[in-house]
Amino acid sequence: MNKNLGIIGCLVLVFIASVGYSIYLYQQTRTLNADKKTLSNQVMALAEEKVQLAGQIAPLTAQIQEADVKVKEYLATQGRQCEGSFVECLNAAIASQKQTCPGTVKNGACILSNFRLISPNGGEQLCLGEEYEIKWKNPTDMKFVNVFIREGNTTRKIGTYPANFNETGEKGYGSAIWKANTKEGYIYEVIVNSDYNARLVSDTSDDVFSIVNCQG
Questions:
Q1: DSSP code for 182
Q2: Which of 64, 78, 113, 154 is deepest in the core (most CB within 10 A)?
Q3: How do residues 71-106 score in pLDDT, each as one tens digit?
């Protein structure tokens, strides 16, 4: 009798241990499945980020290639050749600008005291869809001026205009009519530049201006 009770007790203990282990395995399986789901979501998120980054890299690569061509073209006008990387050629172009620029060099462009943006020069509040006059001062023998609008990291060319064109016909000043048909924003700048005496000269709004919907 006692022997049978001992066997039954052992079987009960084995059963309890088996149930406990089964519960443990079940909990571990649930935890692993949850971890697997979390990892799967992370992998999907990373895959989406990879696609987004790939979409951003393509236009950046195109911009770098375009800039590389322009830098090498500029060096060619200075009688210099560059077969190195974009950064090496850019540094060479900046060094060349420093040697030939009578003003100061900023971001690879020559800043002249007699070539500057007059308006909009920062702090203005423009109305969306309205027309405005972009004005600049320039050397009297400058031929053309390129005008750009920039919002943050996005720059768009407005157009190329005769440097000395204005309503009064006064030499040394130019202007262009521009319609603010972009979008509402508070970090806009205007950039003017030109190829002058075989070098790039440029000026930018001293501060940002805003474009808002004035119709309410």
A1: S
A2: 78
A3: 666 566 555 567 777 677 767 666 665 556 777 776
